[in-house]
Amino acid sequence: MTLRSVILGTGSALPRRRVDNAELATMVDTSDEWIVERTGIRTRYVAGEGESTTTLAAEASRHALEMAGLQAADIDLIILATATPDQTFPASATTVQAALGINDCIAFDVAAVCSGFLYAMTVADNMLRGGAGKTALVIGAETFSRILDWEDRTTCVLFGDGAGAAVLRAEETPAEGGRGILASKLHADGRHNGLLHVDGGPSSTGTVGKVRMKGQDVFRHAVVNLAQVMKEVLDVAGLSTSDIDWVVPHQANARILDATARKLGLDPAQVVVTVDRHANTSAASVPLALDTAVRDGRIKQGDLVVLEAMGGGFTWGACVLRY
Ligand code: COA
Fold first, then answer.
1. Ligand 1 lined by 154 (C-beta under 6 Å)
2. Which CATH superfamily groups domain 180-322?
3. Can you give the pTM of this predicted structure?
4. pLDDT per residue over 159-218, tens digit each?
5. Taking the domains of the chain in order of start, what are their residue ranges?
6. Is the CB of 39 under 6 A from ligand 1?
7. Active site residue ranges
8. Cis peptide before 90 (omega within 30 of 0)
9. Separation of 216 CA from ligand 1 center, angstroms?
10. Which residue owns the Cα nearest ligand 1 atom 32?
11. Regarding the domain delimited by 2-173, which CATH topology (the fold level of the hierarchy) does it fall under?
């Protein structure tokens, strides 16, 4: 038997307001046709009054706990991945902790932008297996709408708000064929800050700043890095692409999803796609897509699932697990 972190439940949350491409075309010089053809995005959700990264995170967490059949008091560790915290400090994880009514557990945020959920899950997995606790709540939650330049058509059409969560529990599982996280691989290369960043922050400008991106350059790096890290993580787990049942990728652009699947020789039907409905929700996109495919019955217990993401930094990573 081997101690592994097993996903017991997933949950997600979206803001009330849905914005379609036609509505964006009234704000900037764009069209439904351009956005669908270049990105696959048709709608995204935008947080309104009373909605924030932590309200969405708390709602997603409640759904995940319910699926897991656990109470908030069972949580030993909360890791929240976000680039859009409610406050510069304290960590949004502690706001979620209070909203869930947990008085004492480990709680902190990780910042790895769109790869945040992969980073958070890997840290949680290592902490659980290292004995820091038995049960973890791992969340990806964002309100990118609040850091978009709504006059910049090259970025504002691409992103949306939302949250996804997973409850992980350390369990002894069979070494061969057992459930849980089998391997994770993370990377970062800080030389690419200029290709995808926010042009502000507490210690530089004293402002929050807006998202800036050189889309074509990011696209090129994404396809290469994602295909490479997926191969790497499968190697570590002693598996090959033909073993995979599902890929749950970061949802940035339908063309990146297609190109990566092609590069790995995967059937596009094995790739979970939500970018059409949610757009790019940064750290929330992988857990949102995972929850979608679990709840609609595609991902079943025992399936081999690969999660992957790449984001600002650059940071990128992949994780292979038996659901
Ligand atoms: N509506 C209409 N036209 C637009 C537009 C919009 N929303 N945004 C850009 N354009 C224009 C450009 O100005 C350019 O016009 P020009 O040829 O007159 O200069 C033209 O469309 C082509 O722009 P380009 O940037 O070459 O398009 P693209 O095919 O590379 O698609 C992205 C742009 C952003 C969709 C694409 O590069 C992408 O998805 N990149 C990766 C982004 C990503 O993954 N980011 C997050 C990682 S976490």
1. yes
2. Thiolase/Chalcone synthase (3.40.47.10)
3. 0.98
4. 999 999 999 999 999 999 999 999 999 999 999 999 999 999 999 999 999 999 999 999
5. 2-173, 180-322
6. yes
7. 114, 250, 280
8. yes
9. 7
10. 215
11. Peroxisomal Thiolase; Chain A, domain 1 (3.40.47)
